[in-house]
Design brief:
single chain; 329 residues; Rossmann fold; Tyrosyl-Transfer RNA Synthetase; 3-stranded parallel sheet; two-stranded parallel sheet; 56% helix; binds tryptophan
Length: 329
């Protein structure tokens, strides 16, 4: 079975766009691949987060991924900083990563521009840490967005360089995993392209039904259709896009027809949309509320994840040490 690995940066709550985007694909992948999902908490240190906030964010990610359907028995769900083999392999790989190539990585240059007062060494070697995350489980596929492909490319480079330098065929070459047509893009409620937390147009999985109703009610609409079968403006098309994802085909057809005959009432459309969104999010929200107050469960799950991750990681590290010449007397 092939190995899939995904690192999650611990920022903010999950929204409907995250859920219908990568997350639902992760949930399906659990039955088809050997999956590793982890919280990249060491990576977040590059921006010097407040310790309390770091802790809350990590807890939040684990809680929400579990609540949405990641299964700690099927997958290996862990926290990066629970696996000491990662910093060790990172140290070893740093010896084969060069200042010049790291300094010209677009993600580094962008971060250095954004936080000129904090261009730390961790920022420079961020791609080495990410390569370590991937190589330590000898992963085959890494589902990432476009902005992360530069890091997968560097990972392949570091792996190949190690293999060539030591004359071994040890690290496989990971590929960026593209969900293709399975990646559903959920638009925002403000008539804009995409739901995203920086846009402030999100419905969060943790939102209660009242807030969902309120947010949907406030969604941008227009004056309504004036001609039969006319094309929909973006803000209305967006509401239909979400409706197609959360509602039944009958419901969608009903409102399509109302639109086409100019009889649509946006109030009705929004009421139905809110109701069907709540049907999706409410069970997840209930699980979030239960899990976040269940310290024993969170402890058990993260301990199990760390054990499974360390088993795989220590196997790789043992061989790497041997290959590099660290051998017992
Ligand atoms: N850099 C990734 C991001 O910003 C997070 C990440 C860290 C990651 N390590 C990884 C993603 C390993 C995939 C594989 O989103």
């Amino acid at each position: 079975m092939q190995t899939v690995l995904s690192g999650i940066r611990s920022t903010g709550n999950l929204h409907l766009g995250n859920y219908y985007g990568a997350l639902r694909n992760f949930i399906k992948m659990q039955d088809q691949y050997n999956c590793y999902f982890f919280v990249a908490d060491y990576h977040s240190l590059t921006t010097h987060p407040d310790p309390k906030i770091l802790y809350e964010n990590v807890k939040n990610v684990i809680t929400e991924y579990l609540a949405a359907g990641l299964d700690p028995e099927k997958s290996t769900l862990y926290i990066q900083s629970d696996v000491p083999e990662i910093p060790e392999l990172y140290l070893l790989l740093n010896m084969h990563a060069y200042m010049g190539e790291l300094a010209k990585t677009p993600s580094f240059k962008e971060k250095a521009r954004k936080q000129p007062e904090n261009v730390n060494a961790g920022l420079l070697t961020y791609p080495v840490l990410m390569a370590t995350d991937i190589l330590i489980h000898r992963a085959n596929f890494v589902p990432v967005g476009k902005d992360q492909e530069q890091h997968i490319e560097l990972t392949r480079k570091f792996g190949r360089r190690f293999n060539n330098f030591y004359g071994v065929e040890f690290f496989p070459e990971p590929q960026a995993f593209n969900f293709g047509t399975n990646l559903i893009k959920i638009p925002g409620l403000d008539g804009s392209g995409k739901m995203g937390k920086s846009e402030g147009n999100c419905i969060y999985l943790k939102d209660d039904p009242k807030s969902i109703e309120k947010k949907v009610k406030k969604a941008l609409t227009d004056q309504g259709p004036t001609e039969m079968n006319q094309a929909k403006p973006e803000c209305i098309e967006n509401l239909f896009t979400i409706l197609r994802v959360v509602s039944t085909p009958e419901t969608v057809n009903y409102f399509e027809e109302k639109w086409n005959t100019c009889e649509i009432r946006y109030g009705d459309l929004k009421k139905q949309l809110a109701e069907d969104i709540i049907k999706v999010t409410e069970p997840i929200r209930e699980r979030i509320l239960a899990i976040e107050n269940d310290a024993a469960y969170l402890h058990k799950v993260t301990k199990l994840g760390a054990e499974k991750a360390r088993e795989s990681a220590s196997g790789t590290l043992r061989e790497v040490r041997e290959i590099m010449g660290f051998r017992p007397f």
